[in-house]
Write a structure and sequence with these properties.
It is a single chain. By secondary structure, this protein is of the alpha/beta class. It folds into two domains: 178 residues, Rossmann fold (3-Layer(aba) Sandwich); 108 residues, no CATH class. The protein contains 17 helices and nine strands. Nicotinamide-adenine-dinucleotide (NAD) binds next to helix 2 and strand 7. Its EC number is 1.1.1.86.
């Protein structure tokens, strides 16, 4: 693990990238899920030679072929490629790396979209190769949709191992080919990307937001309000508030809600998410930084995920899910969203 506490973060755009770095190369995209399908198709349409690496009998094979892409096994694809983009789930990456390691020749690149396995030592890449990261800061279906619309998705770029001296140039060329440089590519490190990503999804985005929603829902329903009203107030409307923050930050959100909502929010928000919550967040960050969370998740996977399955079942059975399912049927927009998700979940 590196200990680079001084973060300098240049942002790169199209004019800072040079397609020559990748023009004559073959890129193997291993996996055809959320990120894989987007990277493979965007690279291909940007004129890069792409081969998708999938296991024999993988359900994604026909999807990749239908999208006009060449498909081989992960080992065949890695053998042929100069750049191997490893876009299978993080938990299976170490096993896939073991299969393809011998196919990586001096000067080849092993590329990630998330730093977990490198940062926590689950993959120890061989010498003689470059190791980089190009990580779009969004789900794959948006990476694809934005590219098709001529727009970009912001991304991160990082270099872990630079044997050729070209690692960053090549990663930026890749970032440009998948559309990220149209929006901006921020330079980071494997450590910073991994730790901030885990903290963000645990404390705020996935963990924090769902815990806030569930507690708010329970408080209203326990006080005798209808589940339908509670659902709309604490879950449905959350998207509208987040959209405003996404577009114009906190200020635009506060400007858009009523003065009453603004005053009440500014005074009561810190009462709910108080100093204790901050201390809990610091504890979450600590466990990310010292590798405790990573070890727990690795052990959980080795044991076939007992706690994960239990927690997931409990979440699916929460009352708010039943109410939400009924209410969302009333909205056409919800149907469109779930179609998008099906596309991703192939
Ligand atoms: P995913 O679960 O959507 O896709 C997995 C793909 O890998 C599928 O095509 C599956 O068939 C294939 N696969 C599974 N096991 C395999 C095996 N043993 N051998 C070969 N192929 C196998 O994955 P994802 O969410 O796109 O994640 C890929 C990488 O991108 C991860 O490192 C993740 O952290 C990173 N990432 C994801 C997102 C996101 O929003 N999904 C965003 C940024 C970065
Ligand atoms: Mg090779
Ligand atoms: Mg993330
Ligand atoms: Mg993540
Ligand atoms: Mg309201």
């Amino acid at each position: 693990m590196t200990d680079d506490t001084e973060f300098t973060q240049p942002v790169y755009h199209e004019e800072d990238t040079n397609a020559e770095y990748i023009a004559d190369k073959t890129v193997a995209v291993l996996g055809y899920g959320s990120q894989g399908h987007a990277h493979a198709q965007n690279l291909h349409e940007s004129g890069v030679d792409v081969v998708v690496g999938l296991r024999e009998g993988s359900a994604s094979r026909s999807a990749a072929e239908d999208d006009g892409l060449r498909v081989a096994t992960p080992v065949e694809a890695a053998a042929e490629a100069d750049v191997v983009s490893i876009l299978v789930p993080d938990t299976v990456q170490p096993a896939v790396y073991d299969q393809i390691e011998d196919e990586l020749e001096a000067g080849d690149t092993l590329q990630f979209a998330h730093g977990f396995n490198i940062h926590y030592g689950q993959i120890e890449p061989k010498g003689g190769i470059d190791v980089t990261m190009v990580a779009p800061k969004s789900p794959g279906h948006l990476v694809r949709r934005n590219y098709e619309a001529g727009e970009g998705t912001p991304g991160l770029v990082a270099v872990y191992q630079d044997e050729t001296g070209d690692a960053k140039g090549e990663a930026l060329a890749y970032a440009s080919a998948i559309g990220c440089a149209r929006a901006g590519v921020i330079e980071t490190t494997f450590r910073e990307e991994t730790e901030t990503d885990l903290f963000g999804e645990q404390a705020v985005l996935c963990g924090g937001a769902t815990a806030l929603v569930k507690q708010g829902y329970e408080v209203l329903v326990d006080a005798g309000y209808s589940p339908e009203m509670a659902y709309f107030e604490v879950l449905n409307e959350l998207k509208l508030i987040v959209d405003l923050m996404y577009e114009g930050g906190l200020t635009e959100m506060w400007d858009s809600v009523s003065d009453t909502a603004e005053y009440g929010g500014l005074t009561q928000g810190p009462v709910v998410v108080d100093e204790t919550a901050r201390e809990n967040m610091e504890e979450v960050l600590e466990q990310v930084q010292n590798g405790e969370f990573a070890q727990e998740w690795i052990t959980e996977n080795q044991a076939n995920r007992p706690k994960y399955k239990q927690l997931r079942a409990r979440e699916e059975n929460h009352d708010i899910e039943e109410v939400g399912e009924r209410l969302r049927e009333l909205f056409a927009w919800a149907e469109e969203e779930s179609e998008d998700e099906e596309e991703v979940a192939e």
